[in-house]
Structures are given as C-alpha cells and as structure tokens.
Design brief:
It is built from 1 helix and 10 strands; from the N terminus they run αββββββββββ. With 132 residues, the chain is an alpha+beta fold. It has one domain: Rieske [2Fe-2S] iron-sulphur domain (Rieske Iron-sulfur Protein, 3-layer Sandwich), CATH 2.102.10.10. The longest helix is centred in the N-terminal third of the chain and has 19 residues. The relative contact order is 0.19. The chain binds FE2/S2 (inorganic) cluster (FES). Pfam families: Rieske (PF00355).
C-alpha cells in the first residue's frame, strides 16, 4: 500500500472520533429556535419553567412583561446535563457536577467555564415568542 494512502486510511477514523469528543466537553447549543408559548395557563407562577427545543423558559416574577421571563439553553455548558432553575436563589443549577449560573447565564461556579446561551423574548398579549 502506498504510504500516503495508508496514512489517510488510518488517520481518518481517528480524526472523526476526535471531532465527536470535542463536542462532549463544555458543550454548546448553537441551533436557532423560534417558537411561541401561550402563557395563559403555562408558567403562570414565579419560578415555574417550561423546556422546549433545547431552551428553558422561566417566569421570574408575577408581572406580565418581557423582563418577567428569561430563556437560556437548557444544556449545561460543561457536559450538556439539563440545568434547573432555583427561584429562591435566582440561579440555575446543574446537578450533575455542580455548576451554577446566574440569572444572566454567567458562570458562578464551575466546572462549566462558559455562560449559558441566552434567547430573545417578546411578549404580545399572552404570546411569549422565543427566538435566537
Ligand atoms: S454537566 Fe457538568 S456541571 Fe453541568
């Protein structure tokens, strides 16, 4: 077998494997979303949340304004475990390895070292549109 052909055939599977590995540590959610939630009977109380299309949408207070809600990628940026909202502490917790994120998505405690991706919110009547 020709040397160059041998190298290509033996290195290609390794490179594919390495590309897959690089996605497992400090994961990202780069896909775009665009959906609308009717909040008439959903996430009606402060601290309640709903997860859809990889996004966790949380009601942080009882008012009905854009700032009454926050939306972030649901996957922890460390290793993609779903985060949960802690209303009393006003932060997201990842219960797999203990990362903590602020209400703005910033890392408070690792091992995650990157912030959560935030999504845009637009409230029209009872329709909360999530994009990003
Ligand atoms: S997946 Fe490891 S801290 Fe979240």
């Amino acid at each position: 077998m020709e040397r160059r052909k041998f190298i290509v055939q033996t290195a290609t599977p390794f490179l594919v494997f390495c590309a897959a590995c690089s996605k497992s540590g400090n994961s990202t959610n780069s896909s775009s979303v665009d959906f609308t939630i009717d909040i008439t009977n959903t996430i009606t109380t402060p601290g309640s949340s709903i997860t859809r299309d990889g996004v966790i949408v949380v009601r942080v207070n009882a008012q009905n304004t854009n700032s009454s809600f926050i939306a972030f990628q649901v996957e922890c940026t460390h290793a993609a475990n779903p985060i949960v909202w802690n209303q009393s502490a006003q932060q997201f917790n990842c219960n797999l390895h203990g990362s903590v994120f602020s209400i703005t998505g910033a890392v408070i405690n690792g091992p995650a070292n990157r912030p959560l991706k935030a999504f845009n919110l637009s409230l029209t009547g009872n329709n909360l549109r999530v994009t990003g």
